[in-house]
Design brief:
The protein is of the alpha+beta class. It contains 15 helices and 10 strands.
Length: about 425
């Protein structure tokens, strides 16, 4: 390991940080809210002993919001019902967030038929990430509850009897250690590892680059990556680093939101966050001929994204690609200049720029927000390289970057709760029309 001057850094702390990274970065096939639902339904079929005669989903408003308009892999269809149907018909609960990995075309036909047996209800006063799948097969009843995290089963019931239960704190994975650290600590920890110790980061690059190429090969979602690539070729858009970052990052998001049958490496439970924290850093490392430092830059990017997101609800009205892009900025900026002061200043600028991006559910438009967030990162990089940026006397930005991060997270945890409820109300009215 590299020597670190920060006295907080111990072998025990490094081990905990690695555990957190590996827990919060996992492959997922499809948008994680509908896929979490598919996982619950696959587990239900396993427990009940077959395909249920009927199925009721009780979900949080936030989970419903993030599944209403997003495509489910293999199906070409959107929403919770088809995700649940696929989970019941062909899901493998042992595969976690890749639960639909073994789907076949015939399964889609059966899942479509099964959708007629599904009802959905919004459940109040539950965690923001919550799905309970309740089914009946002949006289047997069962329910599976997933909450807090996309794969965390809190309870299994069979014929009204609890046969499995676990409290969420049992799965905290030492996340609370992040509460005792500041941004400088996170930066120092990220750089305390040797490049060779971070080889597992290559899987994030491999998976998310494959999604980029898929998004450029075929027309998914809004096709932002393909559109920008086309217009760099006819000179309506420049062929610069910023647009290379934009093309490849949004292409991956286009593919993911459009239902591509490829997994993404997630960050904090989100594929778009994982893409945003990965692809800009990969493109920048290639541009600067610093691929020998890629693992470290990716580690810094993902760790800062996780650090900030750990201060937020798992799902909220704040679009989380904004916080993921802050991590991405840190990775990019470190490749340009290994200067914590520059990174800190740039994060302040980003918080002054993109703190108002709303999450109105997972959809094709997510790639637009990815584009906005990474463009903010690039603007902030250019300003920071000139020693310029948003100052501590402006808006929610503070002279202390740690305080700026705290202020941003307060918005999502407190004042944006009413915004979240209003967004859900608008979406439910559309759904029920």
């Amino acid at each position: 390991m590299n020597e670190a001057n920060n006295p907080k850094i111990t072998k025990n702390l490094q081990d905990k940080i690695l555990k957190i990274l590996k827990h919060e970065m996992r492959p997922a096939l499809g948008c994680t809210e509908p896929i979490s639902t598919a996982l619950a339904c696959a587990k239900l079929r396993e427990i009940i002993g077959g395909i249920p005669d009927s199925l009721t989903l009780y979900v949080s408003g936030n989970l419903f919001k993030n599944a209403m308009a997003v495509s489910v892999p293999y199906t070409g269809l959107k929403g919770l019902k088809i995700a649940a149907g696929m989970g019941v018909i062909c899901g493998d609960a042992n595969l976690g967030l890749e639960v639909l990995k073994n789907a076949k075309s015939d399964d889609v036909i059966e899942a479509k038929r099964f959708c007629k047996k599904i009802t959905i209800e919004i459940k109040e006063n539950v965690p923001t990430l919550y799905v309970q799948a309740c089914g009946r097969l002949n006289s047997t009843q069962a329910s599976i509850t997933i909450a807090y995290e996309h794969t965390f089963i809190t309870e299994i019931k069979l014929d009204q009897k609890v046969i499995f239960s676990q409290a969420y704190q049992d799965n905290q994975c030492d996340m609370e250690v992040l509460d005792s650290l500041n941004l400088r600590d996170i930066y120092d920890i990220a750089l305390s590892f040797e490049e060779s110790e971070l080889e597992f980061m290559q899987e994030a690059a491999r998976l998310n680059e494959a999604l980029s190429l898929e998004g450029l090969k075929q027309d998914y979602g809004l096709g932002i990556g393909r559109t920008y690539l086309k217009h760099t070729q006819n000179n309506l858009a420049p062929k610069d680093l910023q647009n290379q970052i934009l093309i490849y990052t949004t292409a991956a998001s286009d593919a993911r939101m459009g239902g591509a049958n490829l997994p993404a490496m997630t960050n904090s439970g989100s594929g778009n966050q994982g893409i945003t924290a990965t692809i800009p850093v990969v493109i920048t490392a290639k541009y600067l001929n610093k691929e020998d430092k890629l693992n470290q830059a990716l580690f810094l990017s993902h760790l800062i994204a996780i650090y900030i997101h750990s201060k937020l609800p798992r799902l909220s009205a704040l679009c989380a690609v904004s916080t993921a892009s802050i991590g991405s900025f840190a990775g990019i900026a470190w490749l340009f200049s290994e200067d914590f002061g520059l990174i800190s200043q740039g994060i302040n600028t980003m918080i002054g720029d993109i703190s108002g991006i709303l999450c109105d559910g997972a959809a094709n438009s997510c790639s637009l927000k990815v584009a906005t967030a990474i463009q903010s990162a690039y603007k902030s990089l250019l300003l920071a390289l000139e020693k310029k940026g948003v100052g501590g006397d402006e808006g929610i930005v503070d002279n202390s970057t740690d305080k700026s991060i705290e202020n941003l997270c307060k918005l999502a945890k407190k004042s944006m709760q009413a915004t979240d409820a209003q967004i859900l109300d608008i979406m439910l009215k559309k759904f029920n029309q």
